[in-house]
Inverse folding.
């Protein structure tokens, strides 16, 4: 396991992805090594309000010259994310990373790997897609959003899937691009069409993840969900971000997750 | 000259006045890679009960302006797991360990202490009689002076080690409960626990927390904590105090010492910055050096009141 550290970071760029979402790239001098699904706790500013850091899954980590660049996609929803959107290149911040457990990319025994993302749940899915593409391991990817203007990074997703001969399935709730309807519907149609799916890796809004949890449970599919819970510390001491497991226990998502196999999760995620 | 950071809470000598607050630093080793516990004055464990506890249903936390609410519900691994799996390593590292004790009855509090007494490595106990987030135990003792005196006396009978009582800021009579804890045999008082508070989701028209109310912590509560600490110090000047409440900087520590604390606990700041206790300790040292304070003991109770 890679040791977590509180990394000194500088803003490399802030760039709009959609009307509400933006890409934030940070540069760190110390090495950043993370697997898709892992996250970091990012300081929003130097002041006491907002008090807490914000948790973001990585969309990618790469070495550039002497430094390491960490890519995050962030939806502006409140004071902290508004401050982050206004950061200027060169601004200093700190990133506690890498944290949590990522997706299981290896060890697929049969069938295809399906990556599923909804809205701002794309970052860990994009990260997984680019890692898999670089390693030449096939997968299909399904990405859904409310409308066409909220689908983003399509070129990168198309390149990653094309590199391994996989399908890129786009969906919008209003039918303005790709298949009309929710992204889980697209996956169900592939299954109904006879596609063998060996594992599903997913990140997105709760209703999407719960639908996938039900689908995976009903069909006995191996599936992993990256959950989003409000976090204070990100390192397992505040016990604020608990998720209920199948045995009824409540465990911190930051430490035991944020990626959980569906079979470990409680009823909420499976029925 | 390097300031002398040593202090003492009653008979308990500490290498420096900065400890971690219960519920913010796990059991002492959870963040050892980011903040080595042996470099602190001590650690206060997550509240330990006789058996493990599952805690409250989420959502358990809500961020507020310069603060946060929590309603964790004393989720913990239980005293047995702590004594067998964690305490030996804390002892090996010479960490000063204060066990925060919680029970739903006086017998349960005694049971936790009795189990720790059979182990080695506990420096002191802190009775949690002020958690606002559980339905049984805790506050029913912390808000009623007679019950608190009796609970403290029952715990006193179990140990000769320093016994601290962590006071509730929500009690109707702060000084009365402080006096009751001392009457029951407490060696020191720590204050304050979180302030009972409410966060509302206006769109959903519901409380943010599943439990409704929660406890407010963070820099927002620091002035309240300082006021309460000073009130108790003025009323009971000979009782050692441990200050808690929104400490974020070394200068904050100095303020608590001036108000009468012999040591402090850093809590919510750890969530912002896991190494905050060490950073704050460094800042305190520099504050003392800059102010010509040769030893932190000079600050304790040194507030010049009007």
């Amino acid at each position: 396991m890679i040791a977590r550290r509180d990394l000194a970071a500088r803003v490399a760029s802030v760039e709009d992805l959609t009307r509400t979402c933006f890409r934030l790239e940070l540069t760190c001098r110390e090495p950043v090594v993370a697997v898709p699904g892992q996250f970091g706790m990012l300081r929003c500013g130097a002041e006491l309000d907002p008090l807490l850091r914000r948790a973001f899954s990585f969309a990618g980590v790469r070495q550039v010259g002497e430094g390491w660049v960490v890519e995050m996609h962030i939806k502006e929803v409140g004071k902290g994310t508004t401050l982050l959107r206004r950061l200027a290149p060169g601004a200093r911040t700190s990133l506690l990373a890498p944290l949590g457990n990522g997706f299981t990319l290896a060890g697929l025994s049969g069938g295809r790997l399906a990556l599923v993302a909804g809205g701002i749940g794309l970052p860990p899915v994009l990260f997984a897609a680019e890692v898999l593409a670089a390693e030449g391991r096939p997968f299909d990817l399904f990405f859904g959003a409310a409308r066409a203007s909220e689908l983003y990074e399509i070129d990168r997703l198309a390149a990653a899937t094309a590199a391994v001969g996989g399908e890129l399935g786009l969906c919008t709730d209003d039918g303005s691009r790709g298949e009309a309807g929710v992204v889980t519907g697209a996956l169900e149609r592939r299954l109904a069409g006879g596609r063998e799916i060996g594992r599903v890796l997913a990140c997105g809004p709760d209703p999407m993840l719960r639908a996938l949890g039900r689908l995976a449970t009903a069909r006995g599919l191996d599936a992993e969900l990256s959950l989003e819970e409000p976090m204070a510390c990100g390192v397992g001491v505040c016990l604020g971000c608990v998720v209920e497991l199948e045995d009824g226990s409540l465990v911190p998502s930051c430490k035991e997750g944020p990626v959980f196999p569906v079979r470990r999760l409680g009823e909420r995620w499976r029925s | 000259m390097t300031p002398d950071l040593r202090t003492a809470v009653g008979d308990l000598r500490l290498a420096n006045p900065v400890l971690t607050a219960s519920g913010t630093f796990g059991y002492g080793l959870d963040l050892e890679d980011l903040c080595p516990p042996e470099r602190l004055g001590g650690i206060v464990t997550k509240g330990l009960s006789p058996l493990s506890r599952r805690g409250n249903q989420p959502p358990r936390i809500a961020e507020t302006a310069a603060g946060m609410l929590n309603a964790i519900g004393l989720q913990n691994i239980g005293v047995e797991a702590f004594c067998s799996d964690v305490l030996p390593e804390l002892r090996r590292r010479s960490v000063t360990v204060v066990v925060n004790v919680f029970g739903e009855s006086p017998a349960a509090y005694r049971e936790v202490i009795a189990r720790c007494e059979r182990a080695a490595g506990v420096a002191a106990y802190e009775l949690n009689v002020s958690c606002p987030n559980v339905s049984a135990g805790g506050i029913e003792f912390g808000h009623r002076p007679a019950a608190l005196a009796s609970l403290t006396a029952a715990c006193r009978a179990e140990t000769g080690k320093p016994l601290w009582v962590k006071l509730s800021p929500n009690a109707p009579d702060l000084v009365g409960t402080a006096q009751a804890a001392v009457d029951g045999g407490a060696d020191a008082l720590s204050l304050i626990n979180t302030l009972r508070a409410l966060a509302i989701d206006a769109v959903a028209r519901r409380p943010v927390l599943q439990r409704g109310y929660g406890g407010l912590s963070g820099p927002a509560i620091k002035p309240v904590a300082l006021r309460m600490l000073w009130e108790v110090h003025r009323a009971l000047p000979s009782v050692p105090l441990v200050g808690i409440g929104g400490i974020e900087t070394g200068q904050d520590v100095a303020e608590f010492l001036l108000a009468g604390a012999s040591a402090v606990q850093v809590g919510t700041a750890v969530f912002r910055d896991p190494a905050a206790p060490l950073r704050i300790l460094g800042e305190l040292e520099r504050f003392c050096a800059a102010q010509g304070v040769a030893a932190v003991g000079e600050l304790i109770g040194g507030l010049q009141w009007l």
Observations:
- The first strand of chain A starts at residue 5 and ends at 16.
